[in-house]
TrEMBL record, chains A, B:
<dbReference type="InterPro" id="IPR014743">
    <property type="entry name" value="Cl-channel_core"/>
</dbReference>
<feature type="region of interest" description="Disordered">
    <location>
        <begin position="851"/>
        <end position="895"/>
    </location>
</feature>
<dbReference type="InterPro" id="IPR050970">
    <property type="entry name" value="Cl_channel_volt-gated"/>
</dbReference>
<feature type="compositionally biased region" description="Basic and acidic residues">
    <location>
        <begin position="867"/>
        <end position="877"/>
    </location>
</feature>
<keyword id="KW-0407">Ion channel</keyword>
<comment type="similarity">
    <text>Belongs to the chloride channel (TC 2.A.49) family. ClC-2/CLCN2 subfamily.</text>
</comment>
<keyword id="KW-0597">Phosphoprotein</keyword>
<dbReference type="GO" id="GO:0055064">
    <property type="term" value="P:chloride ion homeostasis"/>
</dbReference>
<feature type="transmembrane region" description="Helical">
    <location>
        <begin position="332"/>
        <end position="354"/>
    </location>
</feature>
<feature type="transmembrane region" description="Helical">
    <location>
        <begin position="250"/>
        <end position="274"/>
    </location>
</feature>
<feature type="transmembrane region" description="Helical">
    <location>
        <begin position="440"/>
        <end position="456"/>
    </location>
</feature>
<feature type="transmembrane region" description="Helical">
    <location>
        <begin position="375"/>
        <end position="394"/>
    </location>
</feature>
<dbReference type="GO" id="GO:0005247">
    <property type="term" value="F:voltage-gated chloride channel activity"/>
</dbReference>
<dbReference type="GO" id="GO:0032591">
    <property type="term" value="C:dendritic spine membrane"/>
</dbReference>
<dbReference type="InterPro" id="IPR002244">
    <property type="entry name" value="Cl-channel-2"/>
</dbReference>
<feature type="transmembrane region" description="Helical">
    <location>
        <begin position="190"/>
        <end position="207"/>
    </location>
</feature>
<keyword id="KW-0129">CBS domain</keyword>
Amino acid sequence: MAGDGSDQRALQYEQTLMYGRYTQELGVYAKEEAARLRESGQRRSISERSRTLDLLEYDKGRCAKCRRSGYPYVLEAPAQDFISVCTVRCQKFLISRVGEDWIFLILLGLVMALVSWVVDFCIAICLQAQKWMYGGLDSNVFLQYLAWVTYPVVLITFSAGFTQILAPQAVGSGIPEMKTILRGVVLKEYLTFKTFVAKVIGLTCALGSGMPLGKEGPFVHIASLCAALLSKFMSLFGGIYENESRNIEMLAAACAVGVGCCFAAPIGGVLFSIEVTSTFFAVRNYWRGFFAATFSAFIFRVLAVWNRDEETITALFKTRFRLDFPFDLQELPAFAVIGIASGFGGALFVYLNRLIVQFIRKQKTINKFLMKKRLLYPALVTLLISTLTFPPGFGQFMAGKLTQKESLVTLLDNRTWAKQGIAEEFDYIGNSQAWKHPQVNVFVTLVLFIVMRFWMSALATTIPVPCGAFMPVFVIGAAFGRLVGESMAAWFPDGIHSDGSIYPIVPGGYAVVGAAALSGAVTHTVSTAVIVFELTGQISHILPVMIAVILANAVAQSLQPSLYDSIIRIKKLPYLPELGWGHHEKYNIRVEDIMVRDVRYITLNCCYRDLHNILMSIHLKTLALVESAESMILLGSIERAQLQSLLSQQLSRSRRMEYIRERAATEKKHLSVVSNNDSDDGRQRASQEVRFQISTEESTFSPTRPASQKPLKPALKRSSVVERPTELPTSPHDHSGIALKSLFCSSPDAEALEDDGDVEDDMTLREITEWEERQLDEQVNFSTCKIDPAPFQLVERTSLHKTHTIFSLLGLDHAYVTSIGRLIGVVSLKELRKAIEGSVTVKGVKVRPPLASFRDSGTSSSENEATELHKLWDRHRSVSLPGDQVTSESDEKSQ
Amino acid sequence: MAGDGSDQRALQYEQTLMYGRYTQELGVYAKEEAARLRESGQRRSISERSRTLDLLEYDKGRCAKCRRSGYPYVLEAPAQDFISVCTVRCQKFLISRVGEDWIFLILLGLVMALVSWVVDFCIAICLQAQKWMYGGLDSNVFLQYLAWVTYPVVLITFSAGFTQILAPQAVGSGIPEMKTILRGVVLKEYLTFKTFVAKVIGLTCALGSGMPLGKEGPFVHIASLCAALLSKFMSLFGGIYENESRNIEMLAAACAVGVGCCFAAPIGGVLFSIEVTSTFFAVRNYWRGFFAATFSAFIFRVLAVWNRDEETITALFKTRFRLDFPFDLQELPAFAVIGIASGFGGALFVYLNRLIVQFIRKQKTINKFLMKKRLLYPALVTLLISTLTFPPGFGQFMAGKLTQKESLVTLLDNRTWAKQGIAEEFDYIGNSQAWKHPQVNVFVTLVLFIVMRFWMSALATTIPVPCGAFMPVFVIGAAFGRLVGESMAAWFPDGIHSDGSIYPIVPGGYAVVGAAALSGAVTHTVSTAVIVFELTGQISHILPVMIAVILANAVAQSLQPSLYDSIIRIKKLPYLPELGWGHHEKYNIRVEDIMVRDVRYITLNCCYRDLHNILMSIHLKTLALVESAESMILLGSIERAQLQSLLSQQLSRSRRMEYIRERAATEKKHLSVVSNNDSDDGRQRASQEVRFQISTEESTFSPTRPASQKPLKPALKRSSVVERPTELPTSPHDHSGIALKSLFCSSPDAEALEDDGDVEDDMTLREITEWEERQLDEQVNFSTCKIDPAPFQLVERTSLHKTHTIFSLLGLDHAYVTSIGRLIGVVSLKELRKAIEGSVTVKGVKVRPPLASFRDSGTSSSENEATELHKLWDRHRSVSLPGDQVTSESDEKSQ
């Protein structure tokens, strides 16, 4: 019985979360359990238990309801509870006065700065330990090698295992997921405490291993986790922390904090997080990001000062380029070359990264083996990379002994390496020493470093540990810039400037430009420029950096999606591709060209059988409700789950019991004429009429407006799982009927008969079937059903560009196409995605391979042909409306 | 007759542009005239004349139509035209290939850089001329004074007069207008060539006068003008330049270019323009701004290098602060003080500026006098300011002889003034000399400078010339920062740092912080921080600047709207206030609390009389179309103008003529039975049925889908004025009937009877009235009417916060509130604005004075009371649905 119920629920949620993968079963299950307990009168015990995080939100909703409806809760509860409620209210008042957004943001910034600092500190200790081990064993090369290799393998394996066990969601960067969440998709278990712990510890170990991994992406995720947990914590006191819009705003701010406290770059952090996570950015949210990120960066740097690492607050990777003449105008072509080359390099990196993932996924035998021994892959990759960087081995030719941070510091050094030559003194803190090899030119070292690091980073970021790719890419970019800079310095030993004083070329400036350009190309952002200024503390190279970043973006965006979009596709998260650089042909495609014309709908006067059939035949998340099949006037949309519960209610055992009772009463009536069946009659009547019930978004008062002519009353826009009306039977107690069983594809097993009253369930299976058939012919009573009364509507003529805008603005996943009230089609994210990715050529309609989705088609077609073809295409495709499962499969195939 | 027609049109447009003030009569009139000419067959002459800018867009629309519908235009035209069309098509192909966005952006950047440089150059010459005049007359103080005063008075007066005559729209900053335009409101004549010329020349003269005025705001406007004109120019070749969404995107980029090339600050420019003009920013538009602004800033600085002003590209106001230890941690409180004080100062500045405007507006006598002699006010203000800054007079105590630029350079100087004392040598290029007075302390000079400049700037920005307030405020902020810095330097002569080396305090750093904080407070932006980094070329003070800017914003935003929002209110542009810092109470207000319940609607089966009555009684821009008064199912919305034209068509003279003809025919029928009245019959039948006609957004092909059961066919979302179907009689040729006359409130004067056919208008006035009464009783035929089939719908439970988001996201000005298809209310920008500005207190509902609209109410109410009160309030107000005229009046009163 219970198994049956949970099956049903599982199916339901799989379809609720349109694109699968992440179900939120656990949380919801806990809430339902809580609801059941509460129903059975265990209110007091709940009031204690509800302080746990999972049930918190539910309890808040309930408390709010009680308070408004005349404190029945308080009146029922003893004095102790009353006092606690008073305390809570006082606290709430305090918080609502003081607890403005900025308190939250300061707390968030503070926590994140501490986390960032502690993580950095632990990483530094880990790296130092490795160095110490390696240094201590300098008598024996083999022992040295063992130490050098074992240490990272152990750390990475631990990190992978720990993450795998505690919270597999913590794997990877987190930015793609945050982008999806900020689009409005619920990936709830991404923001749990478990994930937080797994991410922080996993990240520390992963970075402590010395692998070429970054902390930026994970920090965005960690900050979001912090915000979500803090929000939950704060909602213990105040009410405003429950609002969904507010949570989204706070998550957006948290992303900024993540980047900001990672690099001590508040401005760059805000901009980067906007570029990476948002499609449309609410400017009113701007100050939140700045405020929190600044505070966080400030605390992060102050901790360093207090720790006596620094004398005062300065940049993380401070440079000391000359200010008067940072670069010559004639050097600009070299900067532009860096930009363009970085663009190609960035695209290659994204491609390589995806290629590795897909290669490992496709090789069935490898995959099978690796799936069994999940920790083998991380260990192998780590072994390979650390072997190659072993300083006495190949590592000597690629500055292998330097950590990522040390490499970056040396690369941004403001002195020239090449000019002094190899033989010359070269004594900058000893670290630059690593770049100098007795036999090999510094150029060779740099080239080797770039090439080796490039594929190593692409490989390392596929390890299933919490890690980002920003920092490795940043370092590679800096090395590339340095290479160009050193070449320029070798070519023009006295600088380019012709008249007057000599200004030698500064290769460090080139390194800055290269770092910004390559990381910009990989992430498709312009704000890396701002990040480098904040990281280096110098803005003198603003124009070269901007030019290089923009060129790199132009090249990279025309070749490949960004790294994060690439991961989104690999992970099959619900997404909407950007319109890209040259999207003017998108203005000419219209909704009517891409919409699905064969819309499935339910009518207001349909019977339960129609409902049953429609639920059997299709698997859409929501269904359109129209007035009648003739008028096709769109009234709203209903979620599938709602319809299922309607149906299960109609065929529920309790209703059958009632029928039996009624039948018994009728039989009795033959004996005594006086009997009260008013209530049943009333019930019957109600189910015949079309009547809508008030259901509220939050548990506020019910409006007391007089009923108007037609008994249609307000329903909510966004149904909340929390506020299920109590008479709605969705808990596993209500057993579905036989006909319903067929809907949920499970065989009709014998029901556990519970005697719950005066009558006995003495109906035979045939009688039950007959009864159900009769029930199915009744007209649907939508009164207990939540209807979204204003689903988003478009017009046929809306352009693809505008549709894209609206979808990304409002985070829709489908919209109905109407024509003067009449429903004529539906557009979902899927159609839109296809329309954006599949370009229209003159020859015909062609869906481009996903890898080339950002490439522009060589020819543009005349509108007429294109649209006609589109229509044909659509008609062909809409013959069988593909369900969501089909989508994900076809997606899988195309990748 | 013609006067009558234009009256009608004027009324129509006054109601179309909901908030009045700026009517687009001229442009539309020109187009209508062109349409009339074209109708009468003068195609060739048009094809030459249409190359003028005003008619260009119209002609493009027509050309596009011709091209698609089988080249009837080309076939009719001679060979020469054919060749020119071919050339145009070739050009179009070239442009559509090459003419991606980036070409446009490069052109825009280039043009703006040149404009900026030329304007700067001219301003420099003007200022130098003044200095030269003043210096040359050093023998006679009176002559010196005359020269010092006359020069700016003449320039400002010229600027004001020139702008007044050529294009009054060029007055002021332009940022408020751009904000409005980017919200989707059409202020077309803001983007004409005339305005461009007026703005550039007016600005040059105004700034050349040496008044405390800025060029930033005007440059945003100029860049937008450039973009609009360039767009028009480019649309000569390509088709994509006609798209509305694209134009908005380009305007947003242009705003970034404006700031970017003004300060050579690409990043700050982009961010500032986003903060100042957008509510929701499309991240896909981000690269456009960066690209264009970077290119523009680059060219702008390269011009300086080519002109031998600079050796290489560096910042505009380069500073030379030390990098190693820019500031001590213990100095942070001082920076915070600067931030908070700047916040108050910024709010005061906005308040003062508005106060001056309102004072001058309210003083009827002054106002009347000034209205007559429009140039007197500028002249008087200039006289006052220049008198006070006269260097040998009061100006000697406030560095009056320095220009704005020179002041800023000296204020940002990295040496300390106070430490050396007044007596010490003080010889920095001679300009810092101006701050030193033999008798007076440098602190006194600074304080005087700040105080005097403060009110002078607030006053000067009210002069009706093209001018901005950013730069004056920036300088005042720098002076304030310098003051604090010098005080700190005097207080801690050896710096604060306790251990080790001595790091003296850098007052220049304080000046940077002050400048960013004050300008941030006045404009409510955080990105001024980025602008100062780019302006000074140093980012070392990032944390102090960020902290001060955020604090300043926090204070200023809680006291006053931003300067631009303040101007928007003064100018009564349609706007939607921001939600501000602490807006959590907005989550609890719902649409049902603020909506107007008494919605006026028209039903699908109404007769013309209902239409007439409804148009007589209310003055809304759009009306809801519902299925019937019983069902209230919302089908769409119709513009008032459409209904008016429906009505005028029904009562038109041509229909009456037809009636007369018909009557005559019927009379004839008595004589001969054979007559063909089929067509009339068909017409009659058609007008009885409810039938919708296909009308297309752009003049594309008509879809050939088979007609479905109900003969409802697609109509367009946004009606375009250009594409009026030819059978729709809105040109002044169609004379309105008598009943219609009463609608347009003009007395029914005798119509100029034109004999247009075989019959004579022999009906008496009584007959006409009778005929019209009959006509009014007919059912409305909506076939020629453009219906917006998907007006935006909200649900009662939508929160104010969400409503605000949706309104600003989609640029709506009204939305219908529906409940499962049923129309139950309407919310317009007005209600929303009131709800945001008027706070809800426990005592009752109170609309706060506009000046305090951003202040938070001290107490928050319980939701129940508030909502009930809100309802009462709404019911009270909705008794008479106030028209738009009423709105603007009440706005006027409340200010």
